[in-house]
Amino acid sequence: xxQAVEEWYKQMPIITRSYLTAAVVTTVGCSxxxxxxxxxxxxxxxxxxxxxxxxxxxxxxxFRKMDLDFLFHMFFLARYxxxxxxxxFRGRTADFFFMLLFGATVLTGIVLIGGxxxxxxxxxxxxxxxxxxxxxxxxxxxxKHNPFIHMSFLGLFTFTAAYLPWVLLxxxxxxxxxxxxxxxxxxxxxxxxxxxxxxxxxxxxxPLKTPSFITALFAHENxxxxxxxxxxxxxPAQDVHQD
Length: 243
What we know:
With 243 residues, the chain is mainly alpha-helical. The chain contains 11 helices and 3 strands. InterPro entries: DER1, Rhomboid-like_sf.
């Protein structure tokens, strides 16, 4: 069993493995009180006044308590981050890293700007960890790249992957979870999908071209042509689980 888990872990692509490892180590460290969540959460005042720049990163690594909710988010992170990196971004690790960087920037910007808007400031002030939203963004982007894959939600009903974010959002509403986390992920995911996939087809311009310094970080990788997106050939139905 341990060997199988080790082999599964080693076969993960580099970005997925790195993010999953950082998330698990951070969350476990907080659960064991080795790390304090108070040193990780997004706090604009501390970032600007105390130069605690690391908070811009660490708020994406902590997934709160070690419970069933944590396990579900690790499943979604490992599954959809891996699927994106191995398929839609196959041979384009730099582009995948830039997608995550773009998503993190958009999510942070929404929360910071939202905190300054009357009637919304209190809601956004309570959003201090964006790890779940970044995970949901990956689910959204994957669903856009694979809209015709058939899926099953807990064996209750089937649907195509294009509706996966909405199914998960509906489930969050049913169980009484905050929908803001999911909605922020959908907004960031749609912004990326539009600017990277839709807008270039409309205008011939690509506004989200990966910066050269990020490309240089992954210059050693072998470039592989990515698989066609939106393929109409779908594998067997997949079960979907959500926290």
